[in-house]
Design goal:
The chain has 3 helices and 17 strands. It has about 250 residues and is mainly beta. Strand 4 and strand 5 form a beta hairpin.
Length: about 250
């Protein structure tokens, strides 16, 4: 997760700690976005490995999904400068002791109150202009740059147990229509004496734009709701991601 924080948000990661052996890594939004080299391995019909290596790749969109019965899942889209099939397949190596973040360790608060949900998804579009092809004696695209404001959206599903979220959706004022949402996925093993690794996603001003009550016969009534996420002040980030673990960098 540490490497992805840079690609998801900006030019730097702010690290503090340790506190009880736990370091806190915060995604810092930047005006420019770093690139990386990605490699995938495609197996041919005869079982031969065929690596594809993508250079200068920048993440353009990403999504975090929290769902009952599944591990915390991260998806992203990226665009690269070039790709090659001549680069050898890298050897995979894994640090020992890694553990997945799961639904069992995930908790959600809306407006400061704990809300049990079946699923929660946050999506972030960096709004990069990627089709920068130029007449420059080369078929390589120009570096993607910001084309406008970033866009953060969210969606959730849970029991229709009260009118609390519905009242936010139908509120007549911007203040009542918004609430802070914090999703925290905590790892299963202690890092120090009393602290656990975790991934925390904060939407400081989540707007409630949609609300639905899908009903099927006599089934329990569920609620699907979601909207856009905003910053609380001018130029403030619409989504914050903090990763805490035992690594100092």
């Amino acid at each position: 997760w540490g490497a992805f924080l840079r690609l998801m948000g900006g030019t730097a990661i702010s690290t503090s700690g340790p506190t009880d052996s736990l370091y806190t890594h915060t995604m810092v939004r930047g005006a420019t976005f770093p690139g990386a080299t990605f490699q995938t391995n495609e197996e041919l019909l005869d079982g031969t490995d065929e690596p594809f290596t993508y250079a200068g790749a920048k993440v353009t969109k990403w999504k975090l999904m929290f769902e009952v019965g599944k591990p915390v899942t991260f998806e992203f889209e990226c665009v690269g400068t070039t790709y090659l099939t001549s680069t050898g397949l890298a050897s995979a190596s894994y640090t020992s002791g890694y553990e997945m973040l799961t639904w069992a360790g995930t908790a959600i608060t809306i407006g400061g109150s704990s809300v049990p949900l079946e699923s929660f998804t946050v999506e972030h579009d960096l709004n990069l202009k990627t089709d920068r092809w130029k007449l420059k004696g080369s078929g390589v695209r120009q570096e993607p740059v910001k084309a406008g404001r970033t866009k953060t959206t969210w969606s959730a599903k849970g029991d229709f147990e009260s009118l609390t979220q519905y009242d936010r959706f139908r509120a007549a004022t911007a203040t009542a229509n918004q609430a802070a949402i914090v999703v925290t996925a905590t790892g299963p093993t202690l890092v120090g004496a009393a602290t656990y690794p975790s991934l925390a996603v904060t939407l400081p001003a989540a707007r409630f734009d949609d609300f639905g009550k899908p009903m099927k016969g006599n089934d329990l009534i569920m609620a699907d709701f979601g909207g856009a996420a905003l910053g609380t002040t001018a130029n403030a980030a619409s989504v914050g991601v903090v990763y805490s673990n035992a690594q100092s960098t």
